[in-house]
Amino acid sequence: MQVFDRVNDSRFWKSYITCYGANDTNGAPTWTKEDSASGYAPAGAKEGDKRFVAGELGLKYIVNNPGDTRYE
């Protein structure tokens, strides 16, 4: 069911928060030796570094169109 016209209806975007910032990183996961060895960790990341720090994007909610399967 399509309730909103997401292009022209500003109520759609005012109804949802699509990005959340990271504010408490005490329990944040850290990079491991395995992450570095497999190439999963970004360049410059060291073992034990936090994967994200306060102020960075913590969560992004992607709004798909019906039938869009790109992010499954």
Shape designation: elongated
| Mean of residue pLDDT values | 83
Q: If strands are numbered along the chain, what order do they take across the biggest sheet?
A: 1-2
Radius of gyration: 17 Å
Low-confidence stretches: none
Largest sheet: 2 strands, antiparallel
Protein name: RagB/SusD family nutrient uptake outer membrane protein
Organism: Bacteroides cellulosilyticus
Which key terms come to mind for this protein?
72 residues, alpha+beta, 2 strands, 17% helix, RagB/SusD family nutrient uptake outer membrane protein
Task: Outline the structure in words.
- The longest helix has 6 residues, at about 10-15.
- The model has no long low-confidence stretch (mean pLDDT about 85).
- This protein has about 70 residues and is α+β, with helices and mostly antiparallel strands.
- The protein has two helices and two strands; from the N terminus they run αβαβ.
- The chain is elongated and about 45 Å long.
- It is about 15% helix and about 10% strand.
- The protein has helices at about 10-15, 35-40; strands at about 20, 55-60.
- Strands 1-2 form a two-stranded antiparallel sheet.
- The protein has one domain (about 10-60).
